[in-house]
Amino acid sequence: MKGRQEWRGAVVTRAQSIADGIRLIEFAVEGGLPPFEPGSHVSVEVMIEGAPAIRSYTCVSSDAGHIRLAVKRHENSRGGSRFMWTLVEGARLRITLPENRFALSWRASSYLLLAGGIGITPIYGMAKALSVRARPVRLAYAASTRGELAFAGELSELMGTDAEFFVSEEGRRIDLAAEFAELPPDGEAYICGPLGMLNAAKAAWAATGRPSSRLRFEVFGDSGERPEVPFSVEIAGIGKRVDVASDQSLLDALNAAGVDMIWDCLRGECGLCAVDIVELNGELDHRDVFFSDEEKREQRRMCTCVSRLAGGSAIIDTGYRKS
Ligand code: FES
């Protein structure tokens, strides 16, 4: 079974570098586009070593009726960013219409937006939408180097001192506890960044005693705490062994091996791609935000779209049975 989205043809109308290691790629979509909100994402059909695979990207807000994506080149990528970086004007591919699971509530008295690295992609659109409506908003945007800050000039111009940049190479990091302390009680925080930043934010937010529903987050689908290395799985019930390369997701490897899988978000959020772990001979690297910390510690299930093994092997049960 495939993902449930509707696919459209698209043509690249612009592809350019906008920061160190980040390319902006703009698409015109066949049949036009409905309006979409900041935080929306699309799936893109990429080609990896000649085989199609699906990757999910967050949309940059667009006033021009196009879909714009900001794609960071990951040296250790599963092949998606490598493919996206090869796209030039006129290239054709397939894309889904924008969907939003990271929407602004518009109910808060004040907003704190936190971005780490390429996590600026949804946050940029939110910052613009809130600023143009004159809603109280502060942006704290962290990157490793100043050159890696995307949209910084535009955000500074739009937000003035409400936008602050934290460059770790210059010794500046976001003080999450201090940021949350400044937020009014009925304020909301939105964060997009690597898993480590997200986990730190969740812990700092919990320490404030604020309701968890007022911290909204999105994580990069491919950011883990362990390096990507090859591993293998055996599928219970059919005895098939599937090898997963370091630049491949477990879901991609299962699909390539003809195992019947379902999925949707491809970002570790919906849990549709999860499988049972029958036996584990290695260490699990959970990269999803679907399972709770306790469920992750139990090591009984994993999301195949983003989570992987840090080497070794496992026997998994996908629910797939020969008919
Ligand atoms: S497809 Fe949604 S968690 Fe994997």
UniProtKB/TrEMBL annotation:
Domain 2Fe-2S ferredoxin-type: residue ranges: 227-322
Which InterPro entries does the entry link to? 2Fe-2S_ferredoxin-like_sf, 2Fe-2S_ferredoxin-type, 2Fe2S_fd_BS, Beta-grasp_dom_sf, Cbr1-like_FAD-bd_dom, FAD-bd_FR_type, FNR_nucleotide-bd, MRET
Source superkingdom: Bacteria
Q: Where is the FAD-binding FR-type domain?
A: 5-105
What GO MF annotations does this protein's record show?
Answer: 2 iron, 2 sulfur cluster binding; oxidoreductase activity
Q: Which Pfam families match?
A: FAD_binding_6 (PF00970), Fer2 (PF00111), NAD_binding_1 (PF00175)
| UniProt-listed PANTHER family | BLR2392 PROTEIN (PTHR47354:SF2), NADH OXIDOREDUCTASE HCR (PTHR47354)
Q: What is this protein called?
A: 2Fe-2S iron-sulfur cluster binding domain-containing protein
- From which organism does this entry originate? Stappia sediminis
